[in-house]
Amino acid sequence: MNLHDQAINLETRRQFFGRGAKGLGVAALATLLGESAVRGATAGEQPHAGNFGVSGIPSLPHLAPKAKRCIYLHMVGAPPQLDLFDYKPKMVDWFDKDLPAEIRQGQRLTTMTSGQARFPIAPTVFKFARHGKHGAWISELLPHTARMADDICIIKSMHTEAINHEPAITFMQSGSQIAGKPCMGSWLAYGLGSENRNLPTFVVLNANHSDPRANVQAIGAKLWSSGFLSAEYAGVNLRSVGDPVLYIKDPAGVDRNTRRRMLDGLSALNQAKYEQLGDPETQTRIQQYEMAFRMQASVPELTNIASESAATYEMYGEEAKKPGTFANTALLARRLVERGVRFVQIYHRGWDVHGSLPQVLPSQCKDIDQAAWALVQDLKSRGMLEDTLVIWGGEFGRTIYSQGKLTKDTYGRDHHPRCFSLWMAGGGIKGGQVYGDTDEFSYNITENPVHLRDWHATIMQLFGIDHERFTVKYQGLDQRLTGVEKAKIVKAILA
């Protein structure tokens, strides 16, 4: 896909003839290089309307999709796999002993622990039990998640190159550690378009954490950026305090008819500017104003959760009634996908457990456990789970050795990119399984490694997209979510 071609396809008659002098040069070039070479440089498909319309790229999906929509629950700061899903009972006997050098293998460390004189083993203080038909080990901190062990696929062998939060989260979301690429939600909005012209295709919700002791990582709009794609494919952040979307309400003294006349006049001015300059972003601006006008009606209806049943609140918990809680955002996520939103991203911060892990982690888990379970059950009861992909996880894992002082009662864990755990459900994922494994120290992967590129390629596959064919030409490359290195589909986790 070539973004330059999109501008050409949208150009006006005046712009076409303004470029007409170049036509003889193109004809001469075709004579020298061959007609097919020139045609190949200018051909390409374009989306019909993207985030503000209905259709995406005509040739997508490439194959029959299993997933139509996604809810991605990102735990910002990196949950410790050793205390939640990757049970290592033998580590009890290793308490306060040094991590063997042959296990570490000279791995790169963060500056937070690279100066430590030793790396003492910190076994988890939390109890584990087997759950589901296949006996998945799940921590006592996640009792509701344990109840849906047969619905989820736990991947214990995820790995990444990023060792610090900023590049790791960016990598998770956009397929690159360097900011500026489109995130996953933007790629899907661009390729598959919208199912509801009155709501954005891609929506972002930021959930509050409850424990003031939690170490919080900053996040920003670049994580839901459309990168080099048009701004219409960026995520729209719905706020939990005040107006859900800033500046969407009519100002005092301006009624809806007046606003409609103002937008019509503004659209005419923007169209005139577009005809003069031919900048596709001008068309995006027109569409954004129109979407904002329609959202004046659709967003209040969306966020008014008073109509939800008592049974729904019992499932999600009373916290769902409080704006900004994880339970509230999970309920809103279900309402969003129910109304045709393609991709919903929820961020929950506070998982950066460098210290006081046994004191902070229980409250973090309590914030999300019941609501994450409820979301999956709610989707299932409505017949939506089969084509709605739900993802839960962080950006990397945590070390078996303690960061800072280790006692029987407390410890911390540093960043660990070599292995981490996440779970997926619905949308073509085979539930009731644990995929991949790690060594006794949860330090190195011993079975079925899944790199982030493989994970991204698999998600695209679930949406019916061949990740190698879904590209956009930018800065001389056929850019894609999975980058230029090899990525494989993780077929074993597909239903």
Automatic annotation (TrEMBL):
PROSITE patterns: TAT. Pfam families: DUF1501. It comes from the Bacteria. InterPro entries: Alkaline_phosphatase_core_sf, DUF1501, TAT_signal. This is DUF1501 domain-containing protein. It comes from Humisphaera borealis.
